[in-house]
Amino acid sequence: MADIKSSQWRYNMLGYAFSGISLGSVLLLAALGLAITYGLLGVINMAHGEMLMIGAYASYVVQNLFRSWWPGAFDAYLLAALPVAFAVTFVIGMALERLIIRHLYGRPLETLLATWGISLMLIQAVRMLFGAQNVEVANPSWLSGGWEITPALTLPYNRLAIIAFVAGVLVLTWLLLNKTRLGLFVRAVTQNRRMADSVGVPTGKVDMLAFGLGSGIAGLGGVALSQIGNVGPELGQGYIVDSFMVVVLGGVGQLAGTVTGAMGLGIVNKILEPSLGAVLGKILILGFIILFIQKRPQGLFALKGRVLD
Amino acid sequence: MQTALSLRLATRLGPQPLKLAGGAALAVLLAMPALHLWTDPASSLHVSAYTLTLVGKILCYAIVALAMDLVWGYTGLLSLGHGLFFALGGYGMGMYLMRAIGHDGNYQSDLPDFMVFLDWKTLPWFWQGSEHLAWALCLAVGVPGLLALVFGWLAFRSRIKGVYFSIMTQALTYAAMLLFFRNETGFGGNNGFTDFKRILGYGIAAPGTRATLFLLTVLLLVAALAAGFWLVNSKFGRILTAIRDAESRLMFCGYNPLYYKLFIWVASAMLCGLAGALYVPQVGIINPGEMSPANSIEIAIWVAVGGRGSLIGPVLGAGFINAAKSWFTVAFPEYWLFFLGGLFIATTLFLPRGLLGLLRRHKEKA
Question: Rounded to 5, what percent of chain A is helix, strand, coil?
Fold first, then answer.
């Protein structure tokens, strides 16, 4: 009897850990781009959630194209949706930076409001183009079903795929930030904009590309989200507060912070959920974050520096 | 010094035509309840209940905008959670109004209908005393104040500011919204409070009650404006402005910004609570939707459009945007969000000092 109980407990724990990591990886996709642009420009992009939404709608459009023109290869639509979603959000992100955010440098609070305005317009535009209702995005056959470990514990393939996908995106981002010239520039500007500028880093171009990159990662996140949840115009709004909390918790400027923040939030959320309910769990986490930044206002992984605001 | 102060006062109060316009607006506002009560509904001078309620609602928003301006325009703290304080004030008042329904609800019970629906037998402890209007008003002011005090103390003590502060306040109102959406929290869940019958024995929809509530709102707005003018032109107000412009320097001068920020933050939250308490009986409903982050950000744009760092600006901004909203949502509901979003962008890009800044620049050129 005790044996059965303990094995059940172990499977339960495994289940929580899995759903926690799964939630954490979704949060990570949503927050990664945000952390990069916040670290670089010091501005919060309130339209970041809408990049997730646009990514999800991009996979909806690609799905429909495949369905009507190339039904034989329907299962491959998701792979085609990735570059499309990235390209669309990359371009939108760069356009936003060029047209609006660039003109508000040094005024982070105004940037916040302006990007909120952008997000309102994007939501309404999508609503008028695709309707206010949720749209249906089907799982390709290789993502439906799950890996049954015991009858009580099944790991769905789509969640497993997302975790693998997030790991892939993370590795690519790390390579980009640490092994390329652009990444070097991004890190340089994050650490000290004026010094980077004076040694010849084209900060304007770096800002634009990094903003596009952050938006593009969110677009990829949107493709992933389209596989596990509803796709509607308000998709991004649900993630925006959580992804900010990841950034606050993890600090900016280092990928490790964002990863720890996202996984920590995801797992704690899922551990608290069964006993407290989703809402009280969330509130408890928020309270914890408020207390946490008492101790470490810069987040878990702070960049060391001597800059006084 | 004396001349400088009066000069500053003059610029704060705005140019002469603006002062005249303000007086005229006040006269019109004071006349509206009288026109509602004592004119023939058929006459062209009559103010309908709809108009009175709409304007009363906008005046409540104007008070919130004013409170927001004190913390954002003057002290530089952009709060994205002021909708929470407003809604909490509304809930405080709503508790009294729910109790005042008495046995006239659908279930003819002592308890508010939603509690009967949840099969609760007794009032939760935090509802005790809410049958008295005075206590409900204490709650409407005290609860937002207390929440602001705790949150503000924690935030300001660790010198959280800028966008960090903004997103923490946003998370705060978001969490509160989730909490109030739950039925078990004890505030009516999704539906919130509605179907009010009476206030202090007077029918809630009676013309006399409407007119009185409207008048009270006008008075609160005027009192808040007066107190605001006094505050921002005092020495205290200068320190607030100094916190906004150069907090580190202020600290090197030996001031501790913590208590200055905390005072204005709590005062602003309490003012929002009062505005919420006046809003609910006029509009007749309060639900957790008021706490949504989108609502709170909208408050910021009222202030920005009107012109922050001036007290009249936010009042004008709240009036302008909400009037535009009631027109748009009837005439072109689809384009309202485009208009609002465009306003956010255009104001931040082209009108950093808002509409009032435009007027002032015009005057400076002339």
Answer: 80, 5, 20
Touching check for A199 and chain B: CB below 8 Å? no
Residues B282, B217: contact at Cβ < 8 Å?
Answer: yes
Beta-carbon contacts of B160 under 8 Å, excluding residues fewer than 6 positions away, are A293, A297, B168
CA distance A241 to B166: 11
C-beta separation of A103 from B160 below 8 A: no
* Any domain includes A245: no
The whole-number pLDDT of residue A302 equals: 62
Distance from C-alpha of A165 to C-alpha of A173, rounded to nearest angstrom: 12
3-state DSSP assignment of residue B311: coil
Residue A74 has which token pair?
């329907």
What are A93's two structure tokens? 């992100």
On whether the CB atoms of residues A24 and A239 are closer than 8 A, the answer is: no
Q: How many folded domains does chain A comprise?
A: 1
Interface of A with B in 236-295 (CB under 8 A): 237, 240-241, 244-245, 248, 277, 279-280, 282-283, 286, 289-291, 293-294
Antiparallel, parallel or unpaired: β B198-199 and B202-203: antiparallel
Helices (H) and strands (E) in chain B, counts: 14, 4
Contact A283 B345 (CB under 8 A): no
pLDDT exceeds 80 at position B132: yes
**Residue A301 placed within a domain:** no
Q: Average pLDDT in the B215-221 region?
A: 95
For chain B, what are the domain ranges? 55-289
How is residue A105 written in tokens?
Answer: 């440098």
The pLDDT assigned to B67 comes to 95
More confident residue, B182 or B148: B148
Say whether pLDDT at B2 is over 50. Answer: no
| Higher pLDDT, residue A124 or B162 | A124
CB contact under 8 A, B348 and A291: no
Which of these ranges, A1-5, A228-232, B9-13, B322-326, has the smallest mean pLDDT? B9-13
Given B163, B334, B341, which is nearest A112 (Cβ)?
A: B163
Tens-digit pLDDT profile for residues B267-319: 999 999 999 999 999 999 999 999 999 899 999 999 999 888 888 899 999 99
The angle subtended at Cα B318 by Cα B315 and Cα B324, nearest 5°, is: 140
Chain B neighbours among A 131-170 (CB < 8 Å)? none
B209-245: buried (b, 16+ CB within 10 Å) or exposed (e) per residue? bbbbbbbbbbebbeebbeebbebbbeeebebbbbbbe
Give the per-residue pLDDT at B259: 93
Asked if the structure places residue A252 within a domain, the reply is no
Query: For chain A, what is the mean pLDDT?
Result: 85
Question: Which residue type does A275 have?
Answer: S
- Cα separation of A105 and A211, whole Å? 14
The per-residue pLDDT for A285 is: 86
Relative orientation angle of helices B293-306 and B162-181, to the nearest 10 degrees = 140
Whether the ipTM is more than 0.90: the answer is no
Angle between helices B82-100 and B133-157 (to 10 degrees): 160
For chains A and B, CB pairs below 8 A equal 118
User: Which residues are paired to B199 by β-bridges?
Assistant: B202
Instruction: Give the integer Cα–Cα distance in Å for B315 and B335.
Output: 24
| Sequence-separated (6 or more) residues with CB below 8 Å from residue B361 | B353
Per-residue pLDDT reduced to its tens digit, B196-207: 888 888 888 888
Domain containing A113 equals 25-145+156-238
What is chain B's length? 366
What pLDDT is recorded for position B3?
Answer: 47
